[in-house]
Amino acid sequence: MPALWLQVLRSLSRPGTAPDDDILARAAADIALRDDPRPPASADVVLEIARSEFAAVLGRPQAQAALDRARRAARGHGHGDRGG
Is the peptide bond before 2 cis (omega within 30 degrees of 0)? Predict the structure, then answer.
């Protein structure tokens, strides 16, 4: 998912503007799925990663939507469902 990480870098490096929470949510979900199954990927894990890695405060629905999207993307690329 190199394009996602490029978007993260761009979002975090724009002076005078807030980072895009949707992009940061997607990145946190990507990290959560890579670390799955310990801890299991969940909205709570995505929220914690977003806070600790990006200083982003997300809503639970936003975190769950990002996680669902990341799971669909993983299945679409032949990686299978990583559960959770």
Answer: no
The structure's pTM equals: 0.80
What would you report as the CA-atom Rg of the chain, rounded to the nearest whole angstrom? 12
pLDDT in tens, 49-76: 999 999 999 999 999 999 999 999 888 8
C-beta separation of 67 from 43 below 8 A: yes
Taking Cα atoms as reference points, which of 19, 37, 12, 30 lies closest to residue 66? 30
Q: What angle do CA 48, 71, 28 make, to 5 degrees?
A: 25
Residue 48 has pLDDT above 50, yes or no: yes
- State the DSSP H helix or E strand holding residue 47, giving kind and residue range, or none if neither: helix 43-54
> Quick one: tokens of 2?
């190199």
Residue 47 · residue 63 · CB < 8 Å:
yes
Residue 77: both structure tokens together:
């690329």
